[in-house]
Automatic annotation (TrEMBL):
This is Lipocalin/cytosolic fatty-acid binding domain-containing protein. Keywords: Membrane, Signal, Transmembrane, Transmembrane helix. The keyword Secreted does not apply. Residues 1-18 form the signal peptide. It comes from the Eukaryota. The keyword Transmembrane applies. The chain crosses the membrane at residues 170-191.
Amino acid sequence: MKFLTINFLLVFASLAVAEEIIIGKLCDSYNITNNSTDINQLIGTWYEIAKYGPKEDCSTDDICKINATHYNVVHQNGINSSHNHAYTIRNENGTINSNATTSAIQILNIENGTAYALWSCLNITNTSDSTQSLIILSTNTNYTGYKTVLANMGFDNTTSINHSPEICNVTSYGTLNLASLGIVTLIFFVIQIM
């Protein structure tokens, strides 16, 4: 008797997905007083309403807890599914790290419970510049109060993200294109002949 056994193993490759740009300020030049390392407050679905870097309208982030220290973030774009991707953030002894940024992430409380910023910053050696990523998340697509809060902290030059029905293809929300996740598929065939 012959048996054919096929085993499939999917390996999800990590992607550096947060937009990092060079800012002409050092990380300690900001007035940050309301940062947190509690990722649990971010569990759920959020609208990206502003960020550093190129505009990407109709974007959402769905954050879910994997275990005590690891959280999965699924980024979806309602216009272009090729921009969809997933990455992990983790709390390691009070420091939030990610495979999406080159430095630790700080959670900035913009408006308690309804708007947060995910900010990472790394000073560039022997310069007065830093490499940063900044994404503003909100439960409200029309929230603009973040502008004043960020200005008071010393941030500027964020790009607003549009979620208007005229722009967004609402049917694309909730559809994750796995091909865009950078999936590396390894297929092992084990043939047993008896």
